Amino acid sequence: YKFNQSKKKKERKSSQNNRARKRKEIQVGTKISSGHFEMKYNTIVKFLEKKHQVKITAVDARGDNFKESFLQELSKKMEEDGYVIAEPLKVFQA
After folding, report:
1. Considering the entire predicted model, what is its pTM?
2. What DSSP state is assigned to residue 21?
């Protein structure tokens, strides 16, 4: 009885760990204040700590084309804080 109970407990725990995490998406404008940037950055970090995949979309409200440099700045900050970027950054023209 004790063996079956511990076996079921291990199976339940492993199935919880293997469950697929949802992909989160954050949209960030390229011309935002530093306080708003920190808030978005902290949200991204929370999702990463919970083992979610995060898709970051940079939006140019004025069409200034700062998306690529903005995403590179964001990735540099994340790497300085010890986060590894698995996928390369992609910039799509809207």
Report:
1. 0.63
2. P
